[in-house]
Amino acid sequence: MSVKYFESEIGSTSPEKSFWVEDIRADLYDNDGRSAQTKLIADVPDREEITRGPAQEGWKKEEQKLEHYLDGIIASDRARIRENMRQFERRAQAEHLASDEVRRNYVQVNRLYESQTDTPILQPDKQLVADQVIAHAARPHDIDQGLHFTCNVTAIESRLFSKSPAEVAKVIADLGTAGSYTAINQSIPRKG
Question: Are residues 70 and 27 in contact, defined by beta-carbon separation less than 8 angstroms?
Fold first, then answer.
């Protein structure tokens, strides 16, 4: 059972102290930085139950679009990508990712398949990138730096794919289709 809301012993039921946790107890801090022991006052259904609703229907729609693109590739690649999709969906439920995370990830992967231009990268490369986005979302802890000295970047990539795979997929889809990415705060990261 996931827990959503806590009340501190000092009596506050402030919404700012409402959050998802997996444990029954947690520490909250008041405005003075003092630790306030917490106690459970309410709970919500498992996230698995939540993902069976409209959010899952939304991801099924995006999954069907993705399946349409997969029909055009060789059978061995298609089978591998489909298995990665199933693994990602199972991971999303097992790790209690946001219920809309799978759908938003598939939206970004579909953008890579839908792009008809060869800029900024060639269409076959966009398909390879789309395949890697699904594989990394399915198994973020398998992301490997190879023989490169990039463990610092690889660790961040693994963490981001673990916690927010759809956001990472958006960055990749933006760069793969438009050549640039605009952050939430409207800043545009620039090279060097």
Answer: no
Q: Is 139 helix (H, G, I), strand (E, B) or coil?
A: coil
Per-residue pLDDT of the chain (192 residues), as tens digits, is 333 333 333 333 444 433 333 333 333 444 444 444 443 333 333 333 334 455 566 778 899 999 999 998 999 999 999 999 999 999 999 999 987 999 999 999 999 999 999 989 999 999 999 999 999 999 999 999 999 999 999 999 999 999 999 999 999 999 999 998 887 777 777 655
| Residues 150 and 70 placed together within one structural domain of the fold | yes
Is 80 in a helix, a strand, or coil? Answer: helix
Instruction: Mark whether 33 and 117 lie in a shared domain.
Output: no
> CA 83: distance to chain centroid?
17
**93 and 127: one domain?**
yes
Which residues constitute the domain of residue 58?
49-177
Residues β-bridged to residue 37: 27
- Number of separate domains in the chain: 2
